Amino acid sequence: MTFTAPPTPAGATIAGYSVACYTGLTTQPPQQIKEGTDTSDGTTGLSHVITGLKNGVAYACSVTTTFSDNTTTVSPMSNVVIPGSALVAPTITKVGVVMVPYSTNANSGKMYATVNGPAKNAAGSPESGYTVSCHQKGGDPSVTAGTDTAANSTGSPSNHVVTGLTVGTTYNCSVKETFGDGTSQTFNSTEDVTPLSAPDAPALPQNALADTSGNGVGSAKISFPALSGVATGGTDPSKVYYGAVCKAMPGSPPAAFTNTPVDATGLQYGTPGTITHTITGLVNGATYQCQATAYANGMAGLVSNVSNTIGPINVGTYPGPASVGTTLAGGQVTLAITPPTNANAADPITGYTVTTNPSGATQICQVPPAPCVVSGLSNGAYTFSVATNNVNGAGTPSTSDTLNVGVFPAPTNVQPMYGGAGRVVVSFQAPPGASNPANPVSSYTITASPGGATQTCSSTQCSMSGLTHGTSYTFTIQANDSAGSSTPSAASASIKL
Question: Above 60 in pLDDT, residue 105?
C-alpha cells in the first residue's frame, strides 16, 4: 500500500505510519474486521506491505500517522482490493473459489482464474483467446468438469469463472491460449481448487434472555449453536461468521418499529458450541423475535427459524404480586403468591421479600414460591406485605388480607336495640381477619347480664329472646374459631326492656 504524507502539526514531525486493513466493509450492515500485519509498522516510509490477508477476500485499508508530539491522524478508507494467489503458472495468476463477500449462495460450486499470456506466439501471431478447463484431481485430464463462462475471451489479463463444479471436490485446472494463426499452447496450474458452498442456517436460537441498560432501552442476548462439519459449506468451522437480526412483534409500542435493533456483537467468527450475540436498541414494553445467519466462503447461508419471543423488556422494578393468599395450619402461615401480571422470562423475578406486620420481620421467598412459609407467629392479627424482586431491586409491595393466628381478639362496639317484647337485637364489629377464609370466625356468642343467658349466631347482628320485661340488661360478645373463643368484649350500654 502506498500513500502520501498528511499535513504535519506546527512544530511536530512524522514519527511513523501504521496500516490497518479490514474486511466486512461490504456487508449490510457494514462491519470492520481487522486482519493482516503491517510489516513496516511504525516506520516513516510511504509504502507498506501487508501480509496475512486471505486470497479472494475484499479489504479496505487506512493509515494512522503518529507525530512526534504524540498526536495521531487516521486516513479515510482506501479503495477495496482483493489479494490474489501467488503466480502458479506462467499464464495463470489467480486460481481459487469465488469469494464475493457475503453475497448469496448462487456462488456455490464456482471457481475463478485470472489469466495472463504472451501477446504473440513465437511466429508473431497475436493471441486470439483463452479457455480454462478443469478436471477432478487424480482423474483423467481429458475428462473435464464445469464450464468456462468466458471461454475464448481475449485480453491480458483475462478473467474467467468456471461454473458447474461439485462442492467439496478438488480440481486441477489448465488454460489454453489460442493464437491467430491457429496454434495454441496449454499450461497447467499446480494449485488445487475445491469449490465451496454457502453454510447451512444456524439452528433456532434458544434461551433468549434479556438484560437491561438504562434510559428505557434494553438489550438482549440470544444464543444459538455454531455449525460444524459439512454444514459449514466445506470450510473450517472456526472461519464461519455469524450475525443476528431481531424484529419487533405486532402490538409493540410504535417506537419499536422505528428504532431498529442492532447486533452489537457484529459478524464474528464462531467455533462449534454455543454462540451468544447481544442485541441492543430494544424498546421498553416491546416484544421481539430474532433470526441468525451464518456466512462462509463468501456466501450467506439460509436464515434460521425465528427465536422464542424476547420481552417485554423491563428496565425498572416490578409491582407487587397480583395477589397474596394465606393459609393457616399448625401456628404457621403459608402464602400463595401470584406473580405480577407483567412478569416475563426476559426479565426474571429473582424472589419475593415478605414483611410480616405489625412486627416488621422480613424474609425472602424463592421463585417459584413452593411454599412460602412464615412461622414463629404468636397469637394475634397479621397482614403480610410482599414485594417482587428482580435485578433492579424490590418493587412496591402488595398486602394480604388480615389473618388471625390463634383465638381472635374480642369484638368491639356492641350496640343493643329493643326488638319487641322480651327481645333485643345486638349488633357489633367483628375482630380483624374474621372473614379471612384461611382462619375465619365460625360463630359469635352473646351473653346477657344479669341472668347469664346466651345466644349463638353467625353474623354481626344477633337476636336474643326470652328476656324479662322491666329489667335492664348489658351484653358481651365472644368470637369463636377452631382455636377457641376470644375474651368477652366490653359490656354494652344498658338497655331496659
Answer: no
Strand partners for 284 = none
Q: CA gyration radius for the chain?
A: 42
Q: pLDDT tens digit string along 111-126?
A: 766 777 777 766 677 8
Task: Report the candidate in 169, 164, 112, 175 with the shortest Cα–Cα distance to residue 139.
Answer: 169
CATH entry, 323-405, from 2.60.40.10, 2.40.50.140, 3.40.50.300, 3.40.50.720? 2.60.40.10
Give dist(CA 213, CA 313) in Å, integer.
Answer: 10
Let me know: does 237 contact 294? Beta carbons within 8 Å.
no
Distance of CA 108 to the CA centre of its chain: 32
Q: Which three cell numbers stand for residue 203?
A: 439452528
Q: Looking at residue 412, what is its pLDDT?
A: 96
Question: Per the structure block, which three cell numbers stand in for 34?
Answer: 481487522
> What is the rounded distance in angstroms from the CA atom of residue 287 to the CA atom of residue 306?
13
Determine contact, residues 198/301, Cβ cutoff 8 Å.
Answer: yes
Residues 6 or more apart in contact with residue 457 via CB below 8 angstroms:
443, 444, 446, 463
First-last CA distance in the chain: 117
Backbone angle region of 341, left / alpha / beta, with phi > 0 → left and psi within -120 to 50 → alpha: alpha
Q: Are 148 and 138 in contact (CB under 8 A)?
A: no
Choices 1.10.760.10, 2.60.40.10, 3.30.540.10, 3.30.428.10: CATH for 412-496 = 2.60.40.10
Distance of CA 228 to the CA centre of its chain: 23
Instruction: Give the position of cell 395477589.
Output: 323
**Three cell numbers, residue 389:** 424482586
* Whether CATH 2.60.40.10 fits 92-188: yes
Is the pTM of the predicted complex or chain greater than 0.70?
no
Coil, helix or strand for 227?
coil
